[in-house]
Amino acid sequence: MNKQMIDNKRHVVDIDGIKVGGGPVVVQSMTNTDTADAKGTAQQIYQLHQAGSQLVRITVNNEESAAAVPEIIDRLRAARCDVPVIGDFHYNGHMLLQEYPECAEKLAKYRINPGNVGFGRKRDSQFEEIIQVAKDLNKPVRIGGNWGSLDQKLMAKMMDENAKSPSPLSSGALIEKALIDSVLQSAAQAESFGLPADRIIVSCKVSSVQSLIRIYQNLYQQCRYALHLGLTEAGMGNKGIVASTAALSVLLQQHIGDTIRVSLTPEPNQARTAEVKIAQQILQSLELQSFKPEVTACPGCGRTTSEFFQVLAKDVTEHMEQKMPEWRISHPGVKDMNVAVMGCIVNGPGESKHADIGISLPGTGEKPTAPIFIRGQKSHTLKGDNIAGQFIDILDEFVKN
Ligand code: SF4
């Protein structure tokens, strides 16, 4: 697979050993548990990390949450889970980080929003207090602006200036500019308080695809900070997945974005880990990174025999997902493997020959035999009632050898 082009212009931020900036894109996610529930939060962080999340963020919204952070981290380390945990602070971060020093120490990074640090004259001093803690403890900080919580003082000033301008910006363009200016001014302020640029990550999250693309293209041009990328409040189900994929793909293709989060509103029964798998699939589909074998399956049509073809494609995909934790250690190269499961002889043999290993099933009315191709050569012809089981055995043997 092609690896992402190295962008030497970005600052590289080290988050407890995970490097963000200029190299492979880092996948991250966020819990939705009450952080004060240390056991439940640690369990969810563990699950997200097992699914592939390289960084996990938790909300630290009150004293109970701040007090629970040390136990959360201790539980993870006892379970041999070394994922860096990020604390998300709004309004009272300055107070919690100072009054709960063990929380401040155990978190790997802090996330603050320039619009939610404080109000009025206290804003700057509270921001400085947060940066001072980060500086003293060598912690990186993400300065993450969000459309829903713009810095109101800055916005009012910009609206005033815009009204007097001979060529005023539209309200949409003004908000986009305000968001970028807000995070970059706060990042510059953090640097003026002594936090080095390689401990700062910035983000400007919005929920509109086109706006996100414009904002990040501008942000990328205007700074060298590592960029956290994500479409915020992307929504539920297909809408959220498609909108996130559309926005992130355009930007990642231009090498914009050093760490990503897919922010989905989960369906009632949806696993929290879904957002991690979608983020990985976006990176894998763009051939920026590989995480697991790719299954090429035809869409099926009137030539496929009943549901057997779909069942086989699903069984093969699930089998490989189950095997991946073991294969990742015993056969690391397997993540680059390509497996084809094709429905009939029309495109089946051709696609199967291009894959590392492929099966072309018999279509309706065709002979009930299924040729297997390994690295372009026909290796077996399967017959009988257990074609799926035989193929999975051959697949396992192929990986082993
Ligand atoms: Fe239909 Fe065969 Fe093409 Fe699959 S490979 S879509 S079954 S014609």
TrEMBL record:
The keyword Oxidoreductase applies. GO terms for molecular function: 4 iron, 4 sulfur cluster binding; 4-hydroxy-3-methylbut-2-en-1-yl diphosphate synthase activity (ferredoxin); 4-hydroxy-3-methylbut-2-enyl-diphosphate synthase activity (flavodoxin); iron ion binding. It comes from the Bacteria. Keywords: 4Fe-4S, Iron, Iron-sulfur, Isoprene biosynthesis, Metal-binding, Oxidoreductase. [4Fe-4S] cluster binds at C298, C301, C344, E351. Transmembrane segments: none annotated. HAMAP family: IspG (MF_00159). PANTHER family: 4-HYDROXY-3-METHYLBUT-2-EN-1-YL DIPHOSPHATE SYNTHASE, 4-HYDROXY-3-METHYLBUT-2-EN-1-YL DIPHOSPHATE SYNTHASE (FERREDOXIN), CHLOROPLASTIC. This is 4-hydroxy-3-methylbut-2-en-1-yl diphosphate synthase (flavodoxin).
